[in-house]
Amino acid sequence: MRNVITRPKTLFASHYLDVRVIGSDEAIATQLRESGLVTVDGLTSRKAILAFASRLMAITPHPHSAPDGLTTILDTGVHAHRAGFAGLGSGELDAHTERAGVPAPPRLMLLACLRTATEGGDVLLADGRDILAGLSSHDREAAVMLAKPRTAYFGAGAGHASRVFTIHADNRVSIRLRQDGLARWSPIAQPYLPALRREIADCQHRLPLLPGQGYVVDNHRWLHARTRFWGDRLCWRALGQPRFSMARGFVPAPETVPPPARSEAG
């Protein structure tokens, strides 16, 4: 009998839930609580994206969003070189969380693809749980320093003094990050950024999206990025607060030795 070769599922397949199935909202909520990531399909129009987003979250506006809360993500041809606008260009987009420069970033992000690029434009996702575990194992000092309050300042003049890892009193963890021109770092954190970037690169998973496909992430857990692209790529994004309960942050991996808990806001 011929041996059967079992190939690992892609990230999309391993986190996929059919949003058209009755009761899928509860399944999505459960999966977001557990793994922080759900992949979906069938989002073939702006109307469908808005309807699905509204099922899961109370949509919060973004400075670049339309009145309905959806943000059109495409190469505008004029924003690429402005700090904070890299998502509206065609270049590589560094790993980040959404709205890191506000005191309370939205918990959920939905991104759906309507039109693929001619080449490139793949999503890159990294689980903050894996990043923290890797730092704890390979460079614990980096994990400790990047969890110290006020070691990072994200945003422009009205930004937010914060840190990469917030260790809550119950030892759950939240992550926030940006790596563009609107990120400034304390001298005590600066030396540990290369270690952080190495862990992010090691933890990234490539997620090519076809038209109608998308994903929902816990924005306090997963970092997302994008490869450079060529062509007329079009996506829509929604941010918001979940319409279901989610405990603060995520549970660290069992092998993680987290930095000491801090009571200050993240």
Please give the alpha-carbon distance between the first and last residues: 57 Å
Low-confidence blocks of residues: 1-6
So, CATH architecture? 4-Layer Sandwich
Order of helices and strands: HHEHEEEEEEHHEEEEEHEEEEE
User: What proportion strand?
Assistant: 25-35%
Mind explaining what this structure looks like?
There is one protein chain. The chain has 266 residues and is of the alpha+beta class. It has a single domain, classed as Clavaminate synthase-like (Double-stranded beta-helix). The protein has 6 helices and 17 strands. The strands form 5 sheets. Strands 1, 2, 3, 5, 14 and 17 form a 6-stranded antiparallel beta sheet that branches. Helix 4 crosses helix 6 (193-203). It is globular. The chain starts with 10 loop residues before the first helix and ends in a 24-residue tail after the last strand.
Jot down its keywords.
single chain, 266 residues, alpha+beta, Double-stranded beta-helix, 6-stranded antiparallel beta sheet, 6 helices, 17 strands, 20% helix
